[in-house]
Amino acid sequence: MPEKTEIKRDMMKRIPLPERDAAIRRTDFSEVALNYTREEMLLEAERCLHCPTAPCSKGCPVGIDIPGFIGKLAADDAKGAYEIIRSANALPAVTSRVCPQECQCEGKCVRGKKGEALAIGRLERYAADHGAPAEVAPLTAPADAPKVAVIGSGPAGLTCAAELAEKGCAVTVFEALHRAGGVLAYGIPSFRLPKEVTEKEIAAVEARGVDIQTNVVIGRSITVAELLEEEGYQAVFLGSGAGLPRFAGIPGENLPQVCSANEFLTRVNLMHARSGGETPLYLGKKVAVVGAGNVAMDAARCAVRLGAEEVMVVYRRGAEEVPARAEEVHHAKQEGVVFHLQSAPQEILADENGAVAGIKCLHTEPAESDGGRRAYVPVEGSEFVIDCDMVIVAIGTTPNPLIPATTPGLATNRGCIVTGGEAGDTSLPGVFAGGDAVSGAATVILAMGAGKNAANAIWEYLQNKEHIR
After folding, report:
1. What is the pLDDT of residue 5?
2. Are strands 356-366 and 416-417 parallel, antiparallel or unpaired?
């Protein structure tokens, strides 16, 4: 009788993450990527080499003990894995879904040097979805706890608030919109980040004693100075994000069928426009999205789901320079989005009725690189027109100027709040800042890292004040 041959799987390849069929998912807003099964999780966790120097953890902006939590998963202990992650990361179910792991923790993975990096983000999602407690033990700040105001309930603000609450501060978060979450609520579609996931994470932050007040516009409802001088707050963290859209400054951007990706996504994600609510939402039959970052992919994929007949991404650079995550580009193409690369918009054209009729573009070609990001220059005489009846502009955002304009002495540079470094200390005593309000538009996890660093700096600042000596 022949001997049985044991089949060994290739440990250099990661276990694929299951996802919903593109033909089905392009018709709804349900989550695209599915979770690992228990068996798939165990197989992927087995690939970890548990490197003594843990380069993956060094690549994580919030410093998660990655080999530690994966070791727990390998032992089939999702709860233990979650506890390790949560000790460093206030929003694990969020970051596991939207964090660009490929250029952070997974980018440092030793497995990736000869094969495919360990699927750290996917394992983190499994731990977050299967290991989180059903209820979070509530925390209550002592009566004499120092009061800290956090401006903005996005990733930076929520992280800063959670960290400070766990240190014993009485924290109040002020959010300008009617729902907490910042960009997590208004910017990221539910097919990437389900709303119930965000809401559960926010509820866990609130359970730790954080008071979140919505519909409070700092600079209008109340100023930073009033928080410090009249309301009894000993420190303020500015995590107001970067929600002011940029436009290209080309002719035709003022046409009625042109909008920013921020406006489009806010109406879709936060104001119920996609489900027949009262919030109006114009949608063309042929939609052109200018830009190719993650926000552009979100807008394009939303337009597909809302029923546009044709959705196009128009980007001035080539495929290698597309800033969106490769996974998002892949999903967009699967769902039917067409890419017009090396196409630089010059003018948005109007028909005889003053409505959008197309975008006039020039082809571009790569210029010689000086070692930085490769530039693309227009090709003279290469004009062409892309037919469309709606344009969504997704070329970046900047911080809202309201807080700097109403906070005398707060130093800024090109609209961004200036800080002294990772601690987030600003030009005003007791005022700290972090996230997109400081860096300009960046990633969720980088904003969280800034919020965490600022929380530590605020706590140190409070310890040096007389009232808690």
Report:
1. 41
2. unpaired
pLDDT, residue 465, reads 75
Buried b (16+ CB within 10 A) or exposed e, 306-328: bebebbbbbbbbeeebbbbbebb
Distance separating alpha carbons of residues 151 and 432, to the nearest angstrom: 10
Query: Tell me: the pLDDT tens digits for 433-442?
Result: 999 999 999 9
Q: How large is the average pLDDT for residues 32-60?
A: 96
The owner of tokens 């209550």 is 140
In which band, very low, low, confident or very high, does the pLDDT at 214 lie, cut at 50, 70 and 90?
Answer: very high
How far is Cα of residue 8 from the mean position of the Cα atoms in its chain?
38
